[in-house]
Amino acid sequence: MSTDHVSTGHDPYPGPPWTRPSWTRLSALLVALVQVVGSTAAARQQTDRAALDAVGYALLLLGPALLLLRDRFPGPVVAGVTAVTVGYLLAGYPYGPVFFSLAVAVYGALARGRRRWAWISLGGGYLIHLASSHLLPHDWQRAPGPGPSWWQEAGAAAWLLLILAGAEIMRSRGEQLAARRLARRQAEENRAAEERLRMARELHDILAHSISVIHLQAGVALELIDEHPDQVRAALTVIKATSKEALGEVRQVLGTLRGPDGQAPRTPAPGLARLPELVTQAGHAGLTVTVDTVGTARPLPAQVELAAFRIVQEALTNVIRHSAARSATVLMDWSSPAGLLLRVDDPGPAAGGDGGGSGNGLVGMRERAAAFSGELTTGPHGGGFRVRAWLPDPAGEGTASEGKRTG
Asked: Is the pTM of this model over 0.70?
């Protein structure tokens, strides 16, 4: 299977070579400078090699010039630079930093997924150099030297392998950094999605309960406005108080996202301490709620208490919307040290017609319980409906399974 990446045909840097990013041009210029200056200096110590002439300097500059195209054509560039380097050596010019452009081209090819181009180019170039050194007649060579040396060839092979290994290490390091950046970006996107889901769930529970109360009170006001206008004031007072509270909670939820300087909201999140307020609101909607407590209540983490409050709120909202019953029972069972068992019973029967719900209430309650490794079950009970939620206490003793069996 090919290790090359599939090209999409999209050039990240379209345009002529001189429009490449500044680093591409600067690096090519630096490579050219190093090769020309370094090879000129090395030639003084290598009198057995051919002297640098116009062709030699042209070859030293041709490799860096090809590097200007490495962003668009990384495979052909590494092949071309390899050919230029091998041609320079076959011409008998002095050894030196001529391999610098080859190293840069190899890394560019590997970094862009052209591993086959890099390996085949280097392997083919080395075989050509090896064949010319050991198979061609000695007098055909421009700078024959003392004769072929296997130690020198082994050294050249080691240098080529070192270039490949270094480029592979840099490529692997680059891929790891890219993978980390991608993982961080995905984690940020997941956190943002979870925050949006949390806010949507909060807003649903707040608005569903408040609008249900307002809807019922508005209906009462419309029925009494002609015959008992003096009683309309009470209904309007409930509507005003409920809408004010709902607006306050909506601002609180939005404040967690858009608070000044990222500060936390000034008012605490709703918890079980506000359960009496919830009972009073349900009473304004014509629903009598009885709260029974088993065991001794104890503080829970704020987010667990918020989940418990919202579950009870949504369960009572469903009774108001979908049940003909005018009473409901809330059980808070603290008998298990592993957590809290909530149970909301509606004696029924179910009311006919559309209750105006969105259909997301039960799903939201299950998600709230699952967020804390809890469990929520709903279904018919007697002639009515029961919501049963188990919320583990992270600081509690015992096991969650013990608490689930309670009640």
From this structure: no
